[in-house]
Amino acid sequence: MAINAVIFDYDGVIADSKDMIYDIADGFLQLHGIRLDKTKILTGSAKETFRNAGLESRLQEFMPFLKSESIRRFREVDVFPGMQAVLAELEQNYSIGIVSNGFKDFIDRHLSFHGMAGRIKAVVDGSEIRVKPDPYQIIKCLSLLGARPDESCYIGDTDTDVIAARAAGIGKVIAVSYGFHGAERLKNADVIIHRPESIITALKG
Asked: Does the pLDDT of residue 60 top 90, yes or no?
């Protein structure tokens, strides 16, 4: 069946935000006397990071801190090389949405700063009542796009993305290995790619 809509995760797929997120999380953890290896902070999940640190009780305190710091520092975050050209090509033939457990205020500012806001038809963020790996956000985005799950593609960088997309009934699940999780954690995707330019080929394959 033909693909008509493409939904992206944001951090680690479009936005190269790992260094900023690491810096914010590391600063917060140090305030509580905790030092973690970078690989244990950059898990793609704040809940997983704080569980690793034995600080799960601090998660509710951390999330508003992460939101305010991310919005303050959005100009520091690059777009992955090649992604702007990919989005420009995709918008000619597909409706494009974003589903992220991050913050819409950050995403909107970052998209506008990099001249990409007009290419995106819907943004669903982590303020929803249920978040990935629950499929709720993806299902909501599909509704906003007017798209069927079996005629849609989801592109993410974590095993959580893959789980949520499968649960939503997405027709094609593409994982990128250049984000938060490497290929070994993404094996349940239909396709694993290693650079943004490969998205076009993977969609047509």
From this structure: no
